[in-house]
Specification:
284 residues, mainly alpha, Helix Hairpins, 12 helices, 0% strand, extended
Length: 284
């Protein structure tokens, strides 16, 4: 029976890769900043595999993402900043603290009475309150702190927009219902049209940003992840365009294609999509 590797083996492998005498030259050159782009790439590859429900690929990509954490832990250990064990300790400690409805005595072993079922609203309120307490404990009292400071600026823009909106909604800075959100979208769209008519490129960019922010707020009200929604649209667009390419090439290529030809092929692609057909299934 072949050996099955465990987490300890991965940690050992990482130490070997970073061994100054016998390690990998590429791995030895890396630091926090150089590994970061790979971490972001791996996170997106995990998301892509999950959305395609490609479970063997999900397993593989999760492994690649886990390796990023091991990499950071090894670099930090070498610099005597922290290590993988301290990362895990802080994480478990934090999760126990934030889940008093699961660990009532604040220990990993403690359990609540199974007959008691806390309400989801109560759980969410406690979660937010505990996070605020944690932030207050860390804060430098001499530095002004804003509610929005906790939202990382490096997040994807649509995700960050939703995070900002959620943060400010906790103090009542929010629309009372979805009709206000829809009115705001119409208002922002009208302002985009005004700037297009004025020919002001910079203002167009700002107003398009405002429109996207308003649309992301609509997604929040509908409990839709705007990043996932847009990724889905991108996927559908790509699939439809592949069909358009196939049809256009079969009828003489792009040089002879008219706008009507492209429109007809696009509408055909949408109809095939509704019927559950794909170009691959049609070609077979």
């Amino acid at each position: 029976m072949s050996r099955r590797y465990q987490l300890d083996d991965l940690v050992y492998l990482m130490r070997r890769l970073r061994n100054p005498q016998t390690g990998c030259p590429w791995d030895l050159k890396q630091d926090f900043a150089s590994v970061l782009p790979h971490t972001l790439e791996e996170a997106y590859e995990v998301a892509d595999a999950i959305e395609r429900q490609d479970w063997p690929h999900v397993e593989e990509e999760l492994g690649d993402l886990l390796f990023q954490i091991i990499f950071y832990g090894q670099i930090a250990s070498e610099r005597q900043l922290f290590d993988l064990n301290s990362i895990i300790h802080r994480l478990v400690e934090k999760l126990i603290r934030r889940h008093p409805h699961v660990f009532p005595a604040g220990t990993l072993e403690s359990e609540r009475d199974p007959s008691v079922s806390p309400e989801e609203a109560e759980i969410n309120a406690n979660w937010d309150a505990i996070k605020r307490q944690e932030k207050a404990a860390k804060a430098d009292q001499n530095i002004p702190h804003s509610l929005v400071d906790d939202v990382p600026v490096t997040m994807p823009a649509l995700t960050r927009a939703v995070k900002l909106q959620k943060k400010v909604s906790t103090v009542g800075f929010d629309w009372s219902d979805i009709s206000g959100v829809l009115d705001k979208i119409r208002e922002e769209l009208a302002e985009v049209e005004e700037e297009i008519a004025a020919g002001d490129t910079q203002r167009c960019q700002e107003e398009v940003g405002d429109l996207l922010f308003a649309v992301s707020n609509l997604a929040r009200f509908l409990k839709v992840d705007p990043e996932a929604a847009l990724r889905g649209t991108n996927q559908r667009f790509s699939q439809r365009f592949r069909h358009v390419e196939t049809r256009i090439e079969a009828n003489g290529g792009w040089q002879s294609a008219t706008a009507d030809d492209m429109d007809n092929a696009w509408n055909e692609a949408k109809q095939r999509e509704k019927s559950g057909l794909t170009d691959q299934s049609a070609d077979n």
